[in-house]
Give the backbone structure.
Amino acid sequence: MKVAIAGLGAVGRVLAQRLTDGIPGLTLSAVAAGNFDKARAWLDAHGITVPVVSLVEFPLYADIAVECAPPEILEQICRPMLEAGKKVMVISAGALLPRPELVELAKTGGGQIIVPTGALLAFDAVTAAAEGDIHSVRMVTRKPPKGLSGARYLVANHIDVDGLTAPKRVFAGTAREAAAGFPENVNVVAALSLAGIGPDRTMIEIWADPALSRNCHNIEVEADSARFSFSIENVPSENPKTGKITALSVIAALRKINAPLRVGT
């Protein structure tokens, strides 16, 4: 399977290196990036000899594209691949919520959008519970202030998280509202809502906590089949808004596509 990567940031670089080192059944075939020269220089420095191409060219090079880019260009990544009946793996799950037409395009064109597990421990349990009746899903996210600084919601509401000396709740609302206000910070709740009861019934609180060095998520699910809760503490990557486990989740999801033994839903 030929894999193209859109974006060479904290996640894209890890994925490019791992694919180059070798993952059975997968080959890195192309890369797209906002800065062509910078991307080419990084690839050359790491001995990665794949072309840097435009997003519209992805279907010519790849069977699946992995989105590791700013959420505002999600459609530019997805549309060419889905129109060609191919697959896209989406990390910016929050950017999917206001774009249901991309899911419809996948349906009509024979393509597929894949959202990897990422930071969502027990993703399979939520997906399974959704086959029955989920009554409620509640999530509390706590991050170091630098992992939230500059978020759209904070800027619009004049909320300052710099210099905090105690935890501060900066948001409470639905997953849809959180995805719109924190497009680069809480993709995990968007993925949770897509797996479960949707973005308008999935509730979230977001806290900035200066005592933390990790991104912490606590989730409680009440369903007719089970009641469960889980928590995870993610080590931030070089980008404080993204956990190290995100790139590893993408790699695991790619392995699963063609694996002779597939574990998990």
